[in-house]
C-alpha cells in the first residue's frame, strides 16, 4: 500500500507455480490483475480517503474554534478588514537629508526604478551562477571570477549609496540588514575563498543567499498576485507546521528509544549498516526519518525478521554488553514498523498537507476580499508622505 517494493513482489508472484515447483517466467499472468486492482483500491482510493478524512476533520475542528454565529459573511469581512487596519501601526518615513548631495542620492535610491534595476542585477548574477560547471577550463573560471567581482562591486555600491542617503536609518529596515550581511560575506568570501571553503562552507553559498532578495520584486509586479498568495499561505502555515514538526519529533523520539532497546544488536545486512542502525539515538533518528518518507523501510525491516540460524547467530557476543546474538524479533519489528508508518507517514505528514491547504484557502479568500493585505501596505506607504510624524491624523 506504500508502493515500496511492490513490483518485485508482483514479478515473483507472476512467476510462481505450485508448491515445490520451480518458478517459471510469467506462468501466472492473472497475478498482474490482482496487484493492479489492489494498487487501485488499496492505495489510490483507500490512502487518499485516509488523507481526506484527516483534512476534513482538521477543517471541522478549525471551524468550530473560529465560527461566529452572531455575524453574517459581509460583517465578518468588514470585521476582518477593521482588525487588519487596527493591527497595523503607521511608521514614520525616513526623513530626506538636508544635505544637497545626500538628498540627491536619497531621491535616487528611493525610486522604484532603482529597486527594479537591482533585482535585474540579482537575476543576471543568478544566470552567471547557473553557467558554472564542474571541471571547467581555467579561462572560464577567470571570466566568471571577474564577472562575480563586478557584481560584488555593484552590490557594494548599492550598500554605500543607501548608507550615505539613509544614514543610521539604513539599519532600521530588515532587508537592508540582510543586504549588508550578504555584501560583507561576499567580500570576505572573494578574498578568503580557499580558507573559507576548507574550514567552513563554499563562498558560492553567499551568492545563493542573495537570490532571496528576488522575492521583494513580487510586490512590484501586478501579475505576481498568485505567487504572492502562495507565499502568504506558506507564511501563514509556518507556526502550525512548526507545531506539527514538534509532534513528529516527539513520535520519532519515542520510537527511537524503543528501537534502541529492541534492535540495537541486529545483524548488519540489507538496509542496516554503519549509519542506518538502531545502535545509537542519532542513528535511530536517521532511520526513522528515512521511514517517515516511506523510503527503504523494507530494507531496515528485513534483518529484524531474522529469528534464528542460519539467518543470524543467536549466540554471538557483543563486547561491553551482556546481550547475546544478532537476531531480531519479527513480531515486535512488524508492529514497530507498521505502527510508525501509520502514525508518521499516513497521519502526521498528511497533517502538513491539511495545514497548507487550509491556509491556502484562507489566503485565496483574503486576496478576493475588497481590501487585501497589499491594499493596506500601499495605503500606509502613501500615508507616510502626508503624515511624517505617524500621528494617524
From TrEMBL:
Membrane-crossing residue ranges in chain numbering: 31-55, 113-131, 143-161, 173-193, 230-258, 334-357
A molecular function GO annotation: voltage-gated sodium channel activity
Entry keyword Transmembrane helix: yes
Protein's UniProt keywords contain Protein biosynthesis: no
Pfam families membership: Ion_trans (PF00520)
GO cellular component: voltage-gated sodium channel complex
Compartment(s): Cell membrane
Domain of life: Eukaryota
UniProt-listed GO biological process terms: membrane depolarization during action potential; neuronal action potential
Domain called Ion transport: residue spans: 2-64, 112-367
Keywords recorded for this protein, A-Z: Cell membrane, Disulfide bond, Ion channel, Ion transport, Membrane, Repeat, Sodium, Sodium channel, Sodium transport, Transmembrane, Transmembrane helix, Transport, Voltage-gated channel
Membrane topology according to the record: Multi-pass membrane protein
Matching Gene3D superfamilies: 1.10.287.70, EF-hand (1.10.238.10), Voltage-gated potassium channels. Chain C (1.20.120.350)
Family label: Belongs to the sodium channel (TC 1.A.1.10) family.
Function: Mediates the voltage-dependent sodium ion permeability of excitable membranes. Assuming opened or closed conformations in response to the voltage difference across the membrane, the protein forms a sodium-selective channel through which Na(+) ions may pass in accordance with their electrochemical gradient.
Designated name of the protein: Sodium channel protein
The species this protein was found in: Toxostoma redivivum (California thrasher)
Organism placement in taxonomy: Eukaryota, Metazoa, Chordata, Craniata, Vertebrata
Amino acid at each position: 500500500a506504500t508502493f515500496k517494493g511492490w513490483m518485485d513482489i508482483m514479478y515473483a508472484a507472476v512467476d510462481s507455480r505450485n508448491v515445490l515447483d520451480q518458478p517459471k517466467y510469467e506462468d501466472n499472468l492473472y497475478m498482474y490483475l490482482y496487484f493492479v486492482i489492489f494498487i487501485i483500491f488499496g492505495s489510490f482510493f483507500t490512502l487518499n480517503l485516509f488523507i481526506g478524512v484527516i483534512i476534513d476533520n482538521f477543517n471541522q475542528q478549525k471551524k468550530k474554534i473560529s465560527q461566529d454565529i452572531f455575524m453574517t459573511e459581509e460583517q465578518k469581512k468588514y470585521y476582518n478588514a477593521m482588525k487588519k487596519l487596527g493591527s497595523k501601526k503607521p511608521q514614520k518615513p525616513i526623513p530626506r537629508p538636508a544635505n544637497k548631495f545626500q538628498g540627491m542620492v536619497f531621491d535616487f535610491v528611493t525610486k522604484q526604478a532603482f529597486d527594479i534595476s537591482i533585482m535585474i542585477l540579482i537575476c543576471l548574477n543568478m544566470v552567471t551562477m547557473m553557467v558554472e560547471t564542474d571541471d571547467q577550463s581555467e579561462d572560464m573560471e577567470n571570466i566568471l571570477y571577474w564577472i562575480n567581482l563586478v557584481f560584488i562591486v555593484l552590490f557594494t555600491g548599492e550598500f554605500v549609496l543607501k548608507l550615505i542617503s539613509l544614514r543610521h536609518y539604513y539599519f532600521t529596515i530588515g532587508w537592508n540588514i540582510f543586504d549588508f550581511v550578504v555584501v560583507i560575506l561576499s567580500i570576505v568570501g572573494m578574498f578568503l575563498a580557499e580558507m573559507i571553503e576548507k574550514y567552513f562552507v563554499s563562498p558560492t553559498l553567499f551568492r545563493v543567499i542573495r537570490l532571496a532578495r528576488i522575492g521583494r520584486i513580487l510586490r512590484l509586479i501586478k501579475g505576481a498576485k498568485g505567487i504572492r498568495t502562495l507565499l502568504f499561505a506558506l507564511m501563514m502555515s509556518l507556526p502550525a507546521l512548526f507545531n506539527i514538526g514538534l509532534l513528529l519529533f516527539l513520535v520519532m523520539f519515542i520510537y527511537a528509544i524503543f528501537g534502541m532497546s529492541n534492535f540495537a544488536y541486529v545483524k548488519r545486512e540489507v538496509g542496516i549498516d554503519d549509519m542506518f542502525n538502531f545502535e545509537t539515538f542519532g542513528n535511530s533518528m536517521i532511520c526513522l526519518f528515512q521511514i517517515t518518507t516511506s523510503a527503504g523501510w523494507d530494507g531496515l525491516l528485513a534483518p529484524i525478521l531474522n529469528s534464528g540460524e542460519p539467518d543470524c547467530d543467536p549466540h554471538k557476543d557483543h563486547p561491553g554488553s551482556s546481550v547475546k546474538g544478532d537476531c531480531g524479533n519479527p513480531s515486535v519489528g512488524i508492529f514497530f514498523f507498521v505502527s510508525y508508518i501509520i502514525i508518521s507517514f499516513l497521519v502526521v505528514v498528511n497533517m502538513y498537507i491539511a495545514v497548507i491547504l487550509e491556509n491556502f484557502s484562507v489566503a485565496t479568500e483574503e486576496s478576493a476580499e475588497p481590501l487585501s493585505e497589499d491594499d493596506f501596505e500601499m495605503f500606509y506607504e502613501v500615508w507616510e508622505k502626508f503624515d511624517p510624524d505617524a500621528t494617524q491624523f
